[in-house]
């Protein structure tokens, strides 16, 4: 299926014999997204990019929530593994260009090994907005 909605952009969807969506490729307001869906029509693997935000490769749990993110946020590389939002392990290059490793609990750093300032939890809300828009 190919569609275009004014204000959203073009989208290509691929479906199986039971008309269950398996793959979405979209340009949402010039932000590219590629999403592989599981049998419950929830995201399983995604590649998202947000203008002036960065690009992320995401792995989603069975409830449709991201659990692992790897990519660039504000042009700085990062790897983020978490169980709930802003709680988990973050490896990220700091704004000073130094590597940083942190364990986070609800966005608060509980442990860090950083070359300079400790990294903070990435704000992926803009990229999550893209995902919500694509899945709508």
Q: Fill in the CATH topology.
A: Outer Surface Protein A, domain 3
**The CATH top-level class label:** Alpha Beta
Tertiary shape: globular
Beta-strand level of the residues, as a percent range? over 45%
DSSP E strands, number: 11
* Rg estimate, integer Å: 16 Å
Distance, first to last CA? 15 Å
Mean pLDDT: 81
Number of helices: 1
Number of domains: 1
The largest β sheet comes out as: 11 strands, antiparallel
Looking at the overall shape, the CATH architecture is Alpha-Beta Complex
Strand order of the largest sheet: 1-2-3-4-5-6-7-8-9-10-11
Uncertain stretches:
none
Oligomer: single chain
User: What is the structural class?
Assistant: mainly beta
Percent of residues in helices: under 10%
The sequence of SSEs as H and E is EEEEEEEEEEEH
Describe the model.
This protein is mostly beta strands. It has one domain (about 1-135): Alpha-Beta Complex (Outer Surface Protein A, domain 3), CATH 3.90.930.1. The chain is about 10% helix and about 60% strand. The chain has one helix at about 125-135, and strands at about 1-5, 10-15, 20-30, 30-35, 45-50, 55-60, 65-75, 75-85, 85-95, 100-105, 110-115. Strands 1-2-3-4-5-6-7-8-9-10-11 form an 11-stranded antiparallel β-sheet, covered by helices on one side. Strand 1 and strand 2 (about 10-15) form a beta hairpin. About 25% of the residues are buried. The mean pLDDT is about 80.
